[in-house]
Design goal:
280 residues; Rossmann fold; 7 helices; 14% strand
Length: 280
């Protein structure tokens, strides 16, 4: 891969504010690879801090900050317009923003009946509706230019139905299904839709402050840096409707072996068709 494989590209990363987050690590990796990045978040303090950290390394024009709530369709549309206006285009969208009920002061382990309707709605709105709002706002521009990348951060399969993670798990299952559908509808447009996940519990602020997990012993967010640069670049042309596990992305392997080890179809179509007849 070239030293600056994303030279000339513009990216948006949602949920990019947290200094220990996946979004910040992906944004900084994209900048190091040559892209200019619109960092999107609802937390203005985190957003400014993380953007300034990147600017100190890559320069003042490397990133712009956009305060927006992906759960709100009009806010998502305004964020995309702002990115195109300030950075002159848009090639890459990373739908990373996500929350859990634990971030909303729910107990770390709950039954679904412990979740209030407001908690359910907020998590679903950010984790499931948010990627739809952002992709819908961005995809027309990408299709018009004949090239684009939509990358969604979902979660591990078992987490989607793990006890105690309602509504986080179901919301991420919905996001993954949406990416699989998007990828099929985008075939032939030059725009691709794929999934990138860390591969397990990761040391980010998605975990509640009182988590029982040892943060030093779980996956660290830097693991997303290398695979996201490749997936956002022209080197991944033709890769569509796939999910990649960052933990299995082995830079010591040739690219084809790397893809085989870390990748699989998004939304697990290999489990087989369940409908009694085609189209139902």
């Amino acid at each position: 891969m070239p030293e600056k494989p994303l030279e000339g590209k513009v990216a948006m990363v949602t949920g990019a504010g947290s200094p220990i987050g996946l979004g910040f690590n992906m944004a900084s990796a994209l900048v190091e690879a040559g892209a200019r990045v619109a960092m999107v978040d609802v937390n203005e303090e985190w957003l400014d801090q993380s953007a300034n950290d990147i600017r100190e390394i890559a320069g003042d024009d490397s990133v712009v900050t956009i305060l927006a709530d992906v759960a709100d369709a009009s806010s998502a549309e305004a964020a995309v317009r702002a990115a195109i206006t300030h950075l002159g285009g848009l090639h890459i969208l990373i739908n990373n923003a996500g929350i859990s009920a634990g971030n909303l002061n729910a107990p770390e382990t709950t039954h679904f009946w412990d979740i209030t309707p407001d908690m359910w709605q907020r998590v679903i709105s950010v984790n499931f509706s948010g990627p739809f709002n952002m992709a819908r706002a961005a995809v027309g521009h990408m299709m018009d230019q004949g090239w684009g990348r939509i990358i969604g951060v979902t979660t591990s399969f078992d987490t989607m139905f793990r006890l105690g993670v309602t509504p986080y798990g179901p919301s991420k299952a919905g996001h993954e299904a949406f990416i699989a559908l998007m990828s099929r509808e985008l075939e032939g447009t030059g725009v691709t839709a794929n999934v990138l996940v860390p591969g397990g519990a990761t040391n980010t602020n998605l975990l509640p402050a009182n988590t029982v997990l040892d943060r030093s012993a779980i996956i660290q967010p830097e693991i997303m840096r290398s695979p996201v640069v490749w997936l956002a670049s022209e080197q991944s042309d033709g890769i569509n409707g796939q999910r990649f596990i960052a933990q299995f992305w082995d830079e010591s392997l040739p690219l084809e072996q790397r893809i085989e080890k870390a990748g699989a179809p998004a939304a697990w179509p290999q489990l087989g068709r369940q409908a009694p007849s085609p189209g139902t």
